[in-house]
Amino acid sequence: MSTPGAGEASIMPNRESENTSTLTPEQRLTPASSDVLRACIVTIPDVETVQECVAYENAHQNREPILHLLAQQAAKVRDES
Questions:
Q1: How confident is the model over 4-24, as pLDDT tens digits?
Q2: Confidence of residue 63 (pLDDT cuts 50, 70, 90)
Q3: For residue 39, how many C-alpha atoms fall within 13 Å in the half-sphere facing its CB?
Q4: Which of 30, 37, 38, 78 has the largest count of CB atoms under 10 Å?
Q5: In angstroms, rounded to a whole number, what is the distance separating the alpha carbons of residues 62 and 65?
Q6: Polar residues: which segments have biased composition (predicted)?
Q7: Is the residue at 18 inside a domain?
């Protein structure tokens, strides 16, 4: 079995990005630990996912600190694009 070259390595998916982008809003916003919750929010890759999480949070727990973190993440994602 050969080892992949530098060009081949870039083709392989980033498993961490793939995993965090497939989390549902419920999975992102219901961890027991506040550190895990924060990590789930700061890894949101796009504005649409942030909006889905805001809608979920508004419908279920409506926690102001969480909504604030989501607003910060939305601004960060917009700035990066």
A1: 454 444 333 444 445 556 899
A2: very high
A3: 10
A4: 37
A5: 9
A6: 19-30
A7: no
